[in-house]
Structure formats: structure tokens, C-alpha cells
Design goal:
- The protein has about 230 residues and is α+β, with helices and mostly antiparallel strands.
- The protein has 2 domains: about 1-70, no CATH class; about 75-225, Protein Transport Mog1p, Chain A.
- About 25% of the residues lie in helices and about 30% in strands.
- The protein is built from 4 helices and 11 strands.
- The protein has helices at about 1-15, 55-75, 130-140, 210-225; strands at about 35, 40-45, 80-85, 85-90, 95, 105-110, 120-125, 155-160, 160-175, 185-195, 200-210.
- A 7-stranded antiparallel sheet has the order 5-6-7-11-10-9-8, with helices on both faces.
- A hairpin with a 7-residue loop joins β1 (about 35) and β2 (about 40-45).
């Protein structure tokens, strides 16, 4: 520090270039490397000579910073959520996102983004949403092909005391809001569940590319059937 003060004072007083001065401290492993110009300042390396004191905390800090950034960029993993008095536990591969409409009680995505697979939950109250068969027919009608060509199937089951009807189909899916523009998506599949809860029917609809829906169909059904 005295050398630095002296060098700075001399330069201010004489305004003459100084010869580079080498600082040699035992903890500066690269002492002697000078910065460009005759400014009397030198490059010192502290971390190599102070292992265990500076380097480890710095590595820990960097790891924490990276982890924090990744968490802030990714959507929250879905876990537990409620719809009409029933609690659903979603698997870790289903990611919770903000519902895109006030009519949607919950919304999940499967894969990197919503174009890979989307699960939405609806509930319209004790008497809302229409009858069971009307909704099955409506879901089948969301494909451009006739029913005989979309591999249409239904399956009965139960989630506790609530009756569940699974509905499945595949073909060219007409994506879009009820009164909005329609986008036709070939090679798509639909796997729906109509849960007859005490507070009215809950409609859960899983749509996406056929391969995505097929690979996650067991996880979707498990989530529905284990609702409490």
C-alpha cells in the first residue's frame, strides 16, 4: 500500500512515466504481470494462492445464482390443486400454468410448451355443463373426420364415490375457442374425463399430438382416479 501511494503521489507531482514496479507477495501467485502502459499498476492473482478461503465460497455463490435463474425461468411444477371440492395430485411431468380463460379452473401442460400437450379442467356448477352424452358427442365433434374414423371409445370407472367416464378419440382436431377461429391439427388425440362430483360434473380434457397423449394417458388417468 505504501508503494502504491508513493507511486501515485510521484506521478501526480512529476507527471513523468514511471518504470513498472513488481509487487511480490506470497499470496499473489502471478505478481509481476503489469497492465498496459507505465502506470505502475500490476495484475495480481489472489484465488490461486488462497484456496479454501476465497475459491470455495465463490463457487457456491455461482451455483446458487445459476439455480435461482433456472427456477425463475421455468413454470412451477404441478402438484396439488382443487376443482369443485376434489383434490387432484398431478405427476411431476405435468406443469401448472395460468389458465388462459376464466372458465378454466386449472390448466396443465405436458412437454416443453403448450403445443405438445394441454390439460384443462372445467366446472360449471351443480347443474351446469350439460348432460353426459351431450358432452361426449361434443368432444367427438371436435374432429373433422366422422365418428367411425376417429377410433372413438368410452370407458367407465370411479374416483372414490364419483363416477368417471373416460372419452378418447384421434384424428384431425379442431383447436380454438367455441366462437373463435379454428385451427385444424392432424395427428392429434383427445383423452377426456367426466367426473360426476357432488358439486356437479368436472370436465378434464387432455389434447395434443397422438404420441404425447398416448405416452401420458396412464398418468392422466391415475391423476383423475386418485382424486379425493
Amino acid at each position: 500500500m505504501q508503494d502504491l501511494t508513493r507511486s501515485f503521489s510521484r506521478r501526480r507531482l512529476t507527471d513523468k512515466p514511471l518504470k513498472p514496479q513488481k509487487w511480490r507477495y506470497p499470496w499473489a501467485s502471478e505478481a509481476g504481470k503489469t497492465l498496459p502502459g507505465n502506470c505502475g499498476w500490476h495484475l495480481l492473482s489472489l484465488t490461486k494462492g488462497m484456496k479454501g478461503v476465497r475459491e470455495t465460497p465463490m463457487k457456491t455463490f455461482k451455483l446458487l445464482a445459476v439455480a435461482s435463474t433456472l427456477l425463475s425461468l421455468n413454470p412451477a411444477l404441478a402438484d396439488e390443486f382443487k376443482v369443485a371440492g376434489l383434490t387432484f395430485n398431478a405427476p411431476k411431468q405435468f406443469v401448472s400454468v395460468k389458465p388462459s380463460s376464466f372458465m378454466r379452473k386449472a390448466q396443465l401442460q405436458v412437454g416443453a410448451d403448450a403445443t405438445e400437450g394441454q390439460i384443462v379442467f372445467f366446472h360449471f356448477g351443480p347443474q351446469g355443463g350439460g348432460g353426459l352424452q351431450a358432452n361426449i358427442d361434443r368432444w367427438y365433434g371436435q374432429f373433422t373426420e366422422p365418428r367411425k374414423d376417429i377410433n372413438a371409445r368410452t370407458e367407465k370407472s370411479k374416483a372414490g364415490e364419483a363416477a368417471v367416464t373416460f372419452v378418447s378419440a384421434e384424428g384431425t382436431f379442431k383447436a380454438g375457442p367455441p366462437r373463435g377461429p379454428i385451427e385444424e391439427k392432424p395427428g392429434y388425440a383427445l383423452l377426456g374425463a367426466i367426473i360426476e362430483s357432488k358439486q356437479g360434473a368436472i370436465f378434464a380434457k387432455f389434447t395434443g399430438p397422438k404420441a404425447t397423449v398416448s405416452s401420458q394417458s396412464s398418468a392422466f388417468k391415475k391423476m383423475i382416479l386418485e382424486a379425493k
